[in-house]
């Protein structure tokens, strides 16, 4: 019996230990958890040897996959170009897929070359299409002396008359298209005493060519609104893959929608009438009136909704359906589209957002370049993609990451980290760098380069320390790809108010550039809600219809749950949306109306009938005399909250705030998992955290995971006033992962907390510096009086080199018992590998450049070695000063961040090396 009990006890202990290990370990790393990169094939001038070389370099550094985008080629190598989708090109694709698989990677491909979709198979019939309106005045009893023919010389060979409508001064509308002869002569006389305005609609072409096209990919841009044209476009891929017996890629990609001026399609009038219930041609004058009147605004709104529907159905959904039938997936950037971005993002497998420029973070020692562009991809913009993924239950939100973060050759890993942290807190969990260019191993430096930064490739000096950065990303994404979203609120996207606010041309798009300027009220609401310590996802009218109630929570079609639905000062809402909101409230939902109730329906068809029904539904909501104060009223099983102040309104939801955001100004994202929740916290401002932080969720225990080092440990938590608090220590620029356990008490090593004792040692004297690697080569060993930029030393080669310098210092040290020590490098240009007494102490690539080294220090003499790598900026500047010809690319060749021809010979030397001060700070462990 004793033996049986012993065995049972042993098994129980083993099971408990195993369970603890499972829930307290880092998640398993998959290729999707690693960062991926857009891989430009210049001229598709690739070969098997160099494909292997490039993939192995990327795989070795920690890249999980590539996204192939063929573009224009390198000059004087035309004979090596491979035309897109030819048998040889398909052979190179198959080889790439095989090699990627061998390396534990995967390969996506752009479904075209350059962007947008198009190419040589796009006939004029299938090319992007535009409307051309011409107006004429005709007095009563007279005939038109002018011929009704297209005036634009460029359009004369392709444009045709679709409609000619006469609008009389008495309000009559007459289709007189059939009265126009083949020579353009109008065989029609205006009624006597009735002056008429004639509006002719010609359907023409944009003539837009694919941008940055690769060989075999040049041609017209596709008409994305035309269902038949889209199917014909997809058909050529079926033929290429089938004929060449090549497997479809991991995923197909579509870049941001940049179809300029393509505002029409041949069957648009028929589609409009079917969808909107009236003839658009009856309202051409209103369509062209820039929304100046209420009727004009309504007609324009209906037009915009129609083209958005056609884009979603005829292109985005059709493309995804096609991909699924071939056992692959779609990844799409919806921004730039003339449609509700949320619905387009939701129609694909992987919604992809984009950063463009750099954010001005107030973090000490964060390098700020004078050559910069403000980031257009702020959290309010990034959330369109992540919201779509969250509400539809999609695992991944990807991002085109670091586009034009800085000027070429001036991007540091330290600038990348806070930008990507902000993307993570905005819901991104599948990073694609922008990007990497295929470059042969023997290509002269700087190798083959895409015209837009940044450059994540082996020829960039930052590549040597990039594996540490890639590991950081991988650790974070391994968590953020687990579990389900846990944002607090659904925020209604007031699309019809947004459309009404876009005065001017009837055709409008939502490009990433200037989104904040175009949607100031909506963005302001997002920021107010988040600043109060809550998080949210956007929801559209379409997805409100499929949202249900479960245990008092709003549950979207993808299974995500939310505490309340917020309508941010929405004025125009479809009757169907208001009716659905009413039913949701009656079934138990909490609905918040900020600033006002909706007051009208959008669109023109059956307006008075819809208004009457709208008013009837609105009367079922509580009567509110003033929104100046917060009111809470019941509606069925749910409640309606109204008011002007988000801070006060949201308190009435009785949801715990995340104090890390509302009180400390940090950023975070929270997700649910099977044992509780997990957070990613980041402090992207000049604020140090060393205190108890109240969480928005309850927990019995919790663990910290450091994505920088891989360390983990049990966090100190306590209960105060019925809430869970965790003790957190974060410096400006730092980040941490927290995993909470709602009911389990975990058994694992404690997280180490430290406090500075005040004792510190600055390492000033005795530094030596020599170059481990340098171009041009520098053999000299430098004895340094003080630390500073190596460009300021007395050697002209140091002002123009790119490389890695080893800083060495020997120093005597006496360790105190039971104390740890933190090495602080101060200002580093740009990344550092640290070695203490011959043992690796880590790679520091971001602020703060600090690491604990207590276990590596010894009593007596110590040797500290710090290998610092600079940027390639000084070397490329020297190339331009000496006239080295490295801009060897076709088409746009190479431009600046402002898209102008640029030379770098006027750059001042960029500071390089270990600037310091280097300080060892004594720490003592504390128990909070």
From TrEMBL:
Cited SUPFAM superfamilies: Galactose-binding domain-like (SSF49785)
Identification of the protein by name: Glycosyl hydrolases family 2 sugar binding domain-containing protein
Origin superkingdom: Bacteria
The organism of origin for this protein: Dysgonomonas gadei ATCC BAA-286
Pfam families according to UniProt: Glyco_hydro_106 (PF17132)
Entries under InterPro entries matching the protein: Galactose-bd-like_sf (IPR008979), Ulvan_degrading_GH (IPR053161)
């Amino acid at each position: 019996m004793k033996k049986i009990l012993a065995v049972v006890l042993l098994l129980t202990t083993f099971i408990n230990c195993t369970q603890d290990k499972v829930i307290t370990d880092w998640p398993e790393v998959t290729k999707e958890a690693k960062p991926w990169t857009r891989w430009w094939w210049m001229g598709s001038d690739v070969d098997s040897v160099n494909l292997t070389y490039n993939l192995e370099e990327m795989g070795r550094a920690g890249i999980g996959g590539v996204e192939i985008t063929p573009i224009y080629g390198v000059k004087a190598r035309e004979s090596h170009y491979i035309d897109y989708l030819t048998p040889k090109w398909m052979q190179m694709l198959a080889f790439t897929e095989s090699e990627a698989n061998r390396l534990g990677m995967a390969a996506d491909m752009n479904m075209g070359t350059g962007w947008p979709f198009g190419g040589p198979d796009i006939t004029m019939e299938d090319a992007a299409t535009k409307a051309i309106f011409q107006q004429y005045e005709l007095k009563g009893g007279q005939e038109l002396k002018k011929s009704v023919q297209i005036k634009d010389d460029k359009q004369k060979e392709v444009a045709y008359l679709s409609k000619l409508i006469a609008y009389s001064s008495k309000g009559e509308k007459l289709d007189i298209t059939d009265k126009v002869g083949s020579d353009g002569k109008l065989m029609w006389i205006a009624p006597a005493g009735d002056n008429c305005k004639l509006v002719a609609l010609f359907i023409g072409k944009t003539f837009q060519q694919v941008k940055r096209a690769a060989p075999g990919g040049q041609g017209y841009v596709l008409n994305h609104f035309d269902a038949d044209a889209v199917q014909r476009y997809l058909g050529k891929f079926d033929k290429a893959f089938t004929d060449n017996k090549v497997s479809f890629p991991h995923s197909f990609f579509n870049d941001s929608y940049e179809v300029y001026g393509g505002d029409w399609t041949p069957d648009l009038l028929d589609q409009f009438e079917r969808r909107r219930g009236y003839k658009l041609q009856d309202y051409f004058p209103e369509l062209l009136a820039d929304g100046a009147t209420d009727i004009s605004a309504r007609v324009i709104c209906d037009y915009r909704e129609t083209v958005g529907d056609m884009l979603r159905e005829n292109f985005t959904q059709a493309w995804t359906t096609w991909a699924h039938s071939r056992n692959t997936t779609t990844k799409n950037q919806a921004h730039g589209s003339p449609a509700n971005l949320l619905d387009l993002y939701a129609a694909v497998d992987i919604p992809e957002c984009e950063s463009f420029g750099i954010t001005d973070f107030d973090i000490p020692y964060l390098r700020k370049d004078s050559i910069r562009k403000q980031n257009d991809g702020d959290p309010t913009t990034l959330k369109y993609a992540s919201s779509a993924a969250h509400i539809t239950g999609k695992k991944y939100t990807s991002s085109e990451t670091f586009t034009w973060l800085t000027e070429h050759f001036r991007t540091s890993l330290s600038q990348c980290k806070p930008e990507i942290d902000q993307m993570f807190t905005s819901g991104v969990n599948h990073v694609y760098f922008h990007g990497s260019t295929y470059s042969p191993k023997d290509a002269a430096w700087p190798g083959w380069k895409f015209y837009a930064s940044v450059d994540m490739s082996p020829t960039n000096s930052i590549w040597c320390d990039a594996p540490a950065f890639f590991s950081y990303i991988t650790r974070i994404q391994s968590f953020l790809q687990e579990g389900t979203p846990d944002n607090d609120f659904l925020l209604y996207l007031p699309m019809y108010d947004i459309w009404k606010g876009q005065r001017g041309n009837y055709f409008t798009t939502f490009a990433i550039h200037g989104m904040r300027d175009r949607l100031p009220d909506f963005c302001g609401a997002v920021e107010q809600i988040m600043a109060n310590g809550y998080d949210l996802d956007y929801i559209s009218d379409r997805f409100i219809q499929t949202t249900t109630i479960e245990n008092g929570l709003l549950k979207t079609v993808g299974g995500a749950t939310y505490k309340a639905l917020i309508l941010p000062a929405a004025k125009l809402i479809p009757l169907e949306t208001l009716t659905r909101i009413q039913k949701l409230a009656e079934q138990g939902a909490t609905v918040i109306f900020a600033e006002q109730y909706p007051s009208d329906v959008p669109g023109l068809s059956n307006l008075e009938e819809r208004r009457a029904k709208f008013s009837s539904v609105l009367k079922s909501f509580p009567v509110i005399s003033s929104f100046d104060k917060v009111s809470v009223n019941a509606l069925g099983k749910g409640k309606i909250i109204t008011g002007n102040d988000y801070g006060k309104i949201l308190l009435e939801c009785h949801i715990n705030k995340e104090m890390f955001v509302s009180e400390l100004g940090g950023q975070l994202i929270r997700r649910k998992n099977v044992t509780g929740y997990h957070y990613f916290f980041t402090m992207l401002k000049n604020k140090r955290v060393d205190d108890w932080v109240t969480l928005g969720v309850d927990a019995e225990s919790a663990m910290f995971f450091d994505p920088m080092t891989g360390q983990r440990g049990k966090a100190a938590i306590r209960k105060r006033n019925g809430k869970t608090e965790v003790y957190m220590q974060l410096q400006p620029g730092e980040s941490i992962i927290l995993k909470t356990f709602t009911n389990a008490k975990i058994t694992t090593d404690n997280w180490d907390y430290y406090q500075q004792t005040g004792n510190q040692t600055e390492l000033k004297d005795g530094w030596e510096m020599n170059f481990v690697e340098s171009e041009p080569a520098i053999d000299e060993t430098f004895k340094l009086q003080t630390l500073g930029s190596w460009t300021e030393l007395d050697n002209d080669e140091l002002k123009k080199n790119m490389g890695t310098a080893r800083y060495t210092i020997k120093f005597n040290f006496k360790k105190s018992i039971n104390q740890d020590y933190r090495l602080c490098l101060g200002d580093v240009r740009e990344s550092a590998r640290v070695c203490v007494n011959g043992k690796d102490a880590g790679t520091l690539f971001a602020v703060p450049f600090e690491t604990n080294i207590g276990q590596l220090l010894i009593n007596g003499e110590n040797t500290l070695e710090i290998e610092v790598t600079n940027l390639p900026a000084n070397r490329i500047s020297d190339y331009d000063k000496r006239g080295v010809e490295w801009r060897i690319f076709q088409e746009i060749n190479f431009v600046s961040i402002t898209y102008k021809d640029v030379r770098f010979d006027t750059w001042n030397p960029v500071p390089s090396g270990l600037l310091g001060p280097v300080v060892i700070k004594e720490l003592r462990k504390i128990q909070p």
